[in-house]
Amino acid sequence: QSEKASGSYAFYDVEMNRLIAGRLYLESGMRRALQRDEFFLLYQPKVDIHTGQVLGAEALIRWAHPKDGIISPIEFISVAEETNLILQIDAWVLDTACAQAKIWQDAGIAPFRIAVNVSAKEFTDSLAERVKQALARHQISPHWLELEITESMLMQNADGVVKIMSEITAQGVKLALDDFGTGYSSLSYLKKFPIDTLKIDRSFIQGIPDDIDDCAIASAIISMAKQMKHRVIAEGVENREQFAFLQKMGCDEIQGYLFSRPLNVDVFSDLISKKISL
Ligand code: C2E
Ligand code: CA
Ligand code: CA
Ligand code: CA
User: Fold this and answer.
1) Can you tell me the ipTM of this complex?
2) Helix (H, G, I), strand (E, B) or coil at 44
3) Distance between CA 85 and CA 52 in Å, rounded?
4) pLDDT digits over 179-237, tens only?
5) Pick from 3, 137, 199, 267: CA 20 to 30 A from residue 43's CA?
6) Which residues surround ligand 2, an ion (CB under 5 A)?
7) Which among 204, 162, 156, 208 is positioned nearest to 179, based on CA atoms?
8) Strand 174-180 vs strand 54-65: parallel, antiparallel, or unpaired?
């Protein structure tokens, strides 16, 4: 073996150990976080592109780590998925979002949709029942809830998937197809699914208006969504050029830093009654 090769093996071992230690640290940390209630939700407004009215919010998880500060879901969701801790975490998210909806409902605020992200592991036969129980436990109208699912979940087995989705939408809960355009599903699948909203992934919004490919993809998704009678929302809208383009193309809603970052619950509560000036 050459020196170079053994050197790189040694490096590989060190890296591997670091990765494994990092994962174990996260895993035990997340178990503790669930017990000690270290997770919290931020709410990012979804805004009507024509009126500026806040139509809903996406609930986005954060972890207030006692030593490491606020940790983003990008750092821990994939490890949570590998270890099945995601089931407990997403159950916590659903429960917390519904509890918050109950607070707003009791305050006399008109229902707007709180969108909760569903991980692939969670998308099983029991999902509709878990959603039903969460609504019942918190005594909220189903109009409060929307689930964001991704294309890859729909590819697993189409018939089973349609059944799960129909059981959810039959309750009055809406479904959005998240990160749309990044998966590999055949578009013909779209016809079969009881989806309310297509959510254009941020990666296609980023290059608007200079990147002609991004412009073409975003407009194609918007026009297809309209013709299929779906609503369409763009995520990651950061500037006025993107906003103007999307408005011109007929996009219904936008979400992104241009209007608001994800907000803590108190700030979001203040915002609900107001319109965002466009
Ligand atoms: P996502 O579902 O695609 O959520 C959108 C992400 O884009 C969020 O990142 C949001 O903060 C960010 N974002 C929103 N507007 C802008 C913008 O204008 N510019 C840029 N650069 N980013 C923007 P976040 O909160 O870090 O979440 C990352 C991902 O983690 C989410 O991607 C979602 O897949 C996952 N995630 C977040 N919360 C949960 C959860 O409760 N459960 C599960 N299973 N996954 C979650
Ligand atoms: Ca999402
Ligand atoms: Ca996305
Ligand atoms: Ca996503």
Assistant:
1) 0.97
2) strand
3) 38
4) 998 876 667 778 889 999 999 999 999 999 999 999 999 999 999 999 999 999 999 99
5) 137
6) 117, 148, 178
7) 204
8) unpaired
Q: Name the closest ligand to CA 60.
A: 1
Looking at residues 94-115, what average pLDDT do you find?
Answer: 94
Ligand 1 pocket test: pick from 39, 90, 117, 145 the residue with the most ligand atoms within 8 Å of its Cβ: 117
Q: What is the mean pLDDT of the chain?
A: 91
In the chain, which ranges are E strands? 39-48, 54-65, 69-71, 113-117, 145-150, 174-180, 197-200, 231-234, 253-254
Q: What is the pLDDT of residue 21?
A: 80
DSSP three-state, residue 186: coil
- Taking a C-beta distance cutoff of 8 angstroms, is the pair 41, 250 a contact? no
Range of lowest pLDDT (54-68, 83-97, 112-126, 176-190)? 176-190
* Nearest CA owner, ligand 1 atom 23: 236
Evaluate: CB of 56 within 6 angstroms of ligand 1: no
pLDDT tens digits for range 13-39: 777 777 888 899 999 999 999 999 999
Tell me the C-alpha distance between 97 and 122, whole Å: 16
Whether ligand 1 lies within 6 angstroms of the CB of 242 is answered as no
Residues in the chain: 278
Interval between CA 142 and ligand 4 midpoint (Å): 22
**CB-based neighbours (< 5 A) of ligand 3, an ion:** 179, 201
Q: Report pTM.
A: 0.93
CB of 238 closer than 6 A to ligand 1? yes
Q: What pLDDT, on a 0 to 100 scale, did the predictor assign at position 154?
A: 81
Q: Whose CA is nearest to atom 3 of ligand 1?
A: 179
Expressed in angstroms and rounded, the spacing between residue 11 Cα and the centre of ligand 3 is: 34
Is pLDDT above 80 for 240?
A: yes
